[in-house]
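Problem 12. The chain below contains 400 residues. Write out its predicted structure in token notation.
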Amino acid sequence: MTFALNDPRRRTAPSWRTANALLLATALTACSSLGGVGPSAHAIKNTRSTSYASADIQVVDLDDQVIQRTTAYSQSQRFGDVFGQSSPVDTVIGSGDVLDVAIWEAPPAVLFGTTSVDSRLAANPMMAQSASIPQQMVGEEGTITLPFVGALQVRGLTPQQVGREIVRRLAGRAHSPQAVVRVVQNDSRAVTVLGEVVSNRRMPLTPRGERLLDALAAASGPRQPVGKTTIQLARSGRTASMPLDTIIRDPAQNIVLRPGDVVTALFQPYSFTALGAVTQNAEVPFEGGGLSLAQALGRIGGLRDDRADIRGVFIFRLEDPDAVSPQLAQTAKRTADNRIPVVYRFNMSQGTAFFAAQNFQVHNHDVIYVSNAPLVDLQKFLNTLSSAAFSVIGIGNAIK
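Solution.
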């Protein structure tokens, strides 16, 4: 087909070829620049082929077996299981304690006959005489010094044992000596209570066997509501946390304290992060009593109907090795703090999904991510392509 030089169609054909080229270029550009809020469900499923600090990331389907295993691990972290049940023990003297020592001597008194501050006792030599001995603080070396006894190692002994040792050393020098030793200031056998309590303090322990709730009561109780308070207990290099409400309801968790324990009350210390196709992208705090996946999704307004892939709900977690299957724990690489990166995949299209969501507990620092449905990305592409097409048509009309 040929056109005359002055035929308008001769000018139009090249214009349409230019417009088509622009449309194709725009479409190709749109394919690679649709944007999004995160990876697709398919990309997360293939996470094992990618690397995170040179460590494989495990993708685990969230089923009943996985939920039971993670629940059992969480229960094993209760105070009664981590620290065990201990019985009250006798008071053991330590450095820094202040002792009151009283020594009596039967008549006729030989060593302590003139030491009584009571003139009636001094005037009657047939009455037992007692020595007025200043209170003694146990030094760093664990000793005290007494008249006619000398330096006495008392650290690690009970007051009764110290009294018997004093009598043994005075035997043959004093007349039927007797000794009574009391701890009047107990600094070596104490626990520290701090955090969200009315009064931070150090509480001495007695042979009665003070328990965890006794320490909180001694600190005048928590400043925050019980349901939002978590108790952290540190002992001998180990640390565990439990909701205060659970400790109150379960007497087995109200364990006997030991010297050196540190009890810390924390207010709402946990949070999770919600990202992706959810109503609200945010970091959400939650109570120490725990939060199920169903409750977590409810707090962020649930999934977005126009975007969310109900088969693409993921929970990203740095999991403890004891909380995963032995096979996975043996093969998975770990982070510097001995954690295993795990992605739990939750399929909400299944009929039992909401029961599973009620049983699966969200942990501190979890990331809940909901991917876009595949058709959402397709719709984005079509919308971009349509906008580009109309723009190209406008350009074509402009250059006619």
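Discussion. DSSP finds twelve helices and 17 strands in the chain. Students who got a different answer should revisit the alignment rule from Section 12.3.
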